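Attaching the record inline, Q. Sequence:
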Amino acid sequence: MRLFVGHSDDPEASEAIQEAIGSLEGALDGARPIAAVVYAAIDMDHQAIVDGIAESAGRTSR
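Structure, as predicted:
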């Protein structure tokens, strides 16, 4: 098992998730993740976070 951490300080949810995913893509080196744990502040746009993750995985969240 390998563990990677992506992080962002951006207060805008859609920008934050893209930044965090971008930092992970290089670390994954082409490997496909099978699980993720996501933490976000209570006042973030959680749907934007889910949408960003789904988009990066080539799926839609709705």
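The chain has a mean pLDDT of 88. Residues 13-28 form the longest helix (16 residues).

More tomorrow.
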